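Trying the structure run again after the queue cleared.
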Amino acid sequence: MARFGGLVATDLREVTSDPAALDSSGFWAVVADFEGRLVCARFGRLRRARVPAPRAGAWPGPAAGDWTSSLDRVAYTAGVRRIREHIAAGDVYQANLCRVLTGPLPDPGATDIDALTAVLARGNPAPYAGTVRLPAHGVEVATASPELFLRRTGRTVESGPIKGTGRTVGDLLPKDHAENVMIVDLVRNDLGRVCATGSVTVPALCALERHPGLVHLVSTVRGELAQGAGWPELMAGTFPPGSVTGAPKSSALRIIHTLETTPRGPYCGAVGWVDADRGDR
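Done. Tokens:
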């Protein structure tokens, strides 16, 4: 099954890693990870249903003391120092160093990932939340992403990178605005690789977006797909998202691959859906 907002998809018909399938027909759930792997699942039934209220015990989750990190404190701080050296040398403007947290479930066979979606919806509501549950294909993902990686309607594509976060507007600094503008330039470049020349615009720059307990600076980058370009070209041209790599993207990726010790896995903003029959993505 898959759940996005008020939509629930069931009756699995097809699973593929070929993004060209998204230009065909049907309702698809899509999960892309940072390393470029793609899972596209087509469902035969679609209904509207709200995210249910959390049920006591439905999502026990790992115990607080059972979590482990792919980078301990020493390794992480050493990585940050190395990135600062790269910045000083002019190799990169920014690189996003990540740790992967892992924890065992008390009873994996009795745990439903969609129950985690219900818990997240209550405590951390997000505009791009959802579930994709495909256990036979190694995919069980719950996401509560505030960030729009890609939206496609017909030939129009749009991205909403977030840079700059604070508890209140007063927490946002000139550095946050500068970082947002830097990532907007990166996204403009990515979309420019697959969009018609001159069609890429920035309708909103550093707009304020409020969420429970915090505020974001969010920009909008929009373009029209070039003739002959579809989902394969769009995914190849934009992935991984610059907001989770750094800039310039190629240099940031080289640094990330050197410093991070384990694959990142699914990127929360690249878990979504495509209704190919209606042209909504």
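Helices lie at 73-88, 113-123, 174-192, 231-238, 249-259. Worth checking whether this holds up in the mutant runs.
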